[in-house]
Description:
Elements: E1 3-9, H1 10-28, H2 41-47, E2 51-53, E3 59-61, E4 63-67, H3 71-77, E5 90-92, H4 101-125, E6 130-138, H5 142-159, E7 163-170, H6 181-187, E8 194-199, H7 200-209, H8 218-237, H9 246-253, E9 263-267, H10 282-289, E10 306-315, H11 323-333, E11 348-353, E12 370-378, H12 382-397, H13 402-406, H14 413-434
Parallel strand pairs: 1-4, 1-6, 4-5, 6-7, 7-8, 10-11
Antiparallel strand pairs: 2-3, 9-12, 10-12
Helix pairs in contact: 1-5, 1-8, 4-5, 6-12, 7-8, 10-11, 12-14
Amino acid sequence: MREVISLHVGQAGVQIGSTCWELYLMEHGLTSDGYQLNAADDEKSNMLSLFSETSKGHYVPRSLFVDFEPTVIDTIRQGEFKKLYNPEFMVTGKEDSSDNYARGYYSIGRSHIENAESKYRRLAENCDSLQGILLFRSYGGGTGSGFSSLLVERIQDSLGKKCKLEFAIYPSPAVSTSIVEPYNSILTPHLNDVCFMMDNEAVFDLCREKLDVEWPNYYNLNRLVAQAVSSFTGSLRFDGSLNVDLNEFQTNLVPFPSVRFPIVSMAPLISKERIAHTSYNTSQVVSEVFEEKSQFVKCNVKQGLYMSCCLLFRGDFEQGSSSDINKAITNIKTRKDTHFVDWMPTGFKVGLNSNKPRVFPDDDMAEVSRSCVMLSNSTAVQQPWQRLIEKFQRMFRKRAFVHWYVGEGLEESEFDVALGSIQDLIQEYEELTSEGNIDDEDSY
Length: 444
């Protein structure tokens, strides 16, 4: 069994993580305490990639929760799922990072790093064959940006070549929860092998436009993100004719080491009110995941080039022939508004899993028999980075709020180094875009 450890850091990472584990329980038929009756042995073995099993048949998430401000984790400790998690692997402090990367990485972070690192190593020692880690965090928060970076730095030597993948909440174009989000996001070093970016504004629009939620809250947003994460981890937890492990995601999605920020999109997303009047065959589902309105991050993919795509199918796709999927992919390649780099002859990785998606009982999302999550590496992802640099430079020219970072141990020169790193990333995306002509009618 190849295990995966989940690291949930900061308020966003903890809240998304708790929602994901709640969904996993439903999919595996586990109670809120982590017990299951009459489970098949093969189901158990797959489940043990993300859960550990005690001698009493208690399934415990292989997860570490860290947040300096204790309120969010205390909610889990006192909530319905308090007996599910091992309290030893829930780390809190007495004061938060105040939306300050430097507090998370330097001052407060240093006082917690030994404890958090030792907890992680305990989890790793309980694995027979660790496959890698999944990190959940927000780039805009102090703990999510600063402390998670410090933690990954400390454990990456022991990880060696094992996969480090992350689901990161990226600052939204127009909606912000913190003025200094651009500073925190630019300062965050990108040490993981693959970073799946999402932003609250894009997920908010998905809830409002697709699921008919008039005023979505974080509860709605986290549930939608959990659906995408569940499809991602489904091949680790269930049998499938074409399963994809963590190494395959990295190998197929990242053509160059620095170009490692895939876009997440999902279809179908249908409200309970619309499901009776909506059809979704294979061709429609594949076509929909390529639409901008199905993305979890705001960017115009029609202005970029796809370098690689991973299509993760769940549900009754396996009941029919894979020819429908191949036909749908061929149709996508011939669309005039969808462009691929000319040096990628195939461009698609496909995963098939017969376990259909589940939804929360009181969710606004309708339960469907099949779904598809696409992870696509497109040069269009440079757009959110460019927006972020513009916001960063506006403040940094005036040195606004910089004293709060310097006062916590950050040197001002680190701002320039971090900015240069992101500018280099954008330049690499621009060079890849210029290699193909997206207006060429003969292109894919």
